[in-house]
Specification:
This protein is α/β, with parallel strands linked by helices and 224 residues long. It is built from 7 helices and 7 strands, in the order βαββββββαααααα. Strands 1, 2, 3, 4 and 5 form a 5-stranded mixed beta sheet that branches. Strands 6-7 form a two-stranded antiparallel sheet.
Length: 224
């Protein structure tokens, strides 16, 4: 889970309340781990133990200088993430309903990153680290976007000309440039598909869907 915070705009007493709330609800930090990560151990309905991870994230701009990796407030630090600045002006509200770890039912409305900023940040991550899940997340969220590709294009279009957006989306296009590129192959790897025919089908689908989307948005492959 990721908590997006424009920490330089949050008053110290408010931010302290956020950190204290995490501690009060049983979240902890691991010795030697990144300071922006918090964990909590819970049990699901079958009694299986699950460790929930929360990351405190912030935009690159404003607050601490360009060379710093974190935005600081009180005694906690949020990790700067390239593309995260787009989140604050592009959010959607979702309603979640279920049981809390203690068994009580609850229903809440939360703000989450809109699909455009989400893909931009995933593109940055896909470019910088070797994690198959980043490619799969891009493929899954695009393929399953409500009302299909036309709606997805229109949802992203308002930010498509933004410099950060063009960079992040361009990085996705570069990694999905060919059917045997890193993007499509990592999608199949994450799904652990061993059947060669099925692997080829999934790679082709990922390649064609992502490229159709980015061509509609007139996004060019990123190059350094």
């Amino acid at each position: 889970m990721q908590f997006f915070s424009g920490t330089w705009d949050i008053k110290d007493d408010t931010y302290k309340t956020i950190v204290q709330t995490l501690a009060d609800r049983g979240y902890y930090q691991r010795e030697g781990d990144q300071s922006f990560r918090f964990y909590r151990d819970v049990e699901d309905t079958s009694g299986r133990r699950i460790t929930v991870e929360i990351n405190l994230l912030a935009g690159e701009y404003g607050g601490t200088g360009k060379g710093r990796r974190h935005q600081v407030a009180q005694d906690a630090r949020a990790r700067k993430v390239r593309g995260c600045d787009l989140v604050f002006g592009n959010v959607v509200k979702i309603t979640l309903e279920g049981r809390l770890p203690g068994g009580a039912k609850n229903k809440v409305t939360a703000k989450v990153a809109a699909i455009g900023p989400f893909l931009v940040m995933k593109g940055m991550a896909l470019w910088e680290r070797m994690k198959e899940k980043d490619a799969y997340d891009i493929y899954y969220c695009c393929k399953n976007y409500p009302s299909g590709l036309p709606s997805l294009v229109e949802a992203i279009r308002p930010i498509a000309k933004n410099k950060l957006a063009k960079e992040g989306l361009g990085k996705i296009k570069a990694k999905f440039a060919t059917v045997d590129g890193i993007g499509p192959i990592w999608v199949a790897d994450f799904l652990e598909i061993s059947d060669l025919e099925e692997r080829a089908r999934v790679q082709r689908e990922a390649f064609e869907f992502i490229n159709t989307l980015l061509e509609e948005l007139k996004i060019e492959p990123f190059s350094e």
